[in-house]
Amino acid sequence: MTEADTLIRLAHIGRTFYLGDAQVHALRDINLNIQQGEYIAVMGPSGSGKSTLLNVLGLLDRADAGVYHLAGRDVTTLAADEQARVRSEHVGFIFQSFHLVPRLTAAANIELPLMLAGINPDERAQRVKQVLHDYGLDARAEHRPNELSGGQRQRVAIARATVMQPTLLLADEPTGNLDKVTGEEVVALLEALNGQGVTLIVVTHDQSLGARARRQIKMDDGAIVSDTAASVIVGATRDEST
Which residue has the higher pLDDT, 229 or 219? Predict the structure, then answer.
């Protein structure tokens, strides 16, 4: 990989929260490089910093210390409006609880990022129609979330996350509220997107899902305690079947 292939570069990232008088070090001196097109699982016990790391990567949260480069740009101290613009251009989010707007139809939920980005109505309609078709949701376009199954809601969420054609897709426990069969279908969709070149980072407690990623990052107490990419850096062999 060349320098141009590096999508994410984190240097000495820290994030501290305060609960009353107590300090909680959610992230401790995180140093991480992620190449365009990687498929990464972030794993660890509850409270280990996984979701905080995902929020920092997705510009939903801001680090207290360190430097974050995304797509070659220092995004560490961007103003809120510029941060939102970069997030809209580069990042898609998928959450365990779907985070769909209850009063909006599937099509309208998918259209939201396009509206916020100022895409013209004709192009919005074309993109929404295409992703509804791509995710097998044509017949559910006018249904609201409470009229959809869990798998359909997650497909709507994935369609919404990808309609802006992001370079980075962040998934926080994407199968957590789904049965096994539906979860496997959702994972197949995410892996197909990664196969098309989208960088995929999945936070999960599911060991079997984590094992599917080509790179596993394990966290504990706000720090990265292991990273399978390290074996590649030092020239060791690694089982590519995972």
Answer: 219
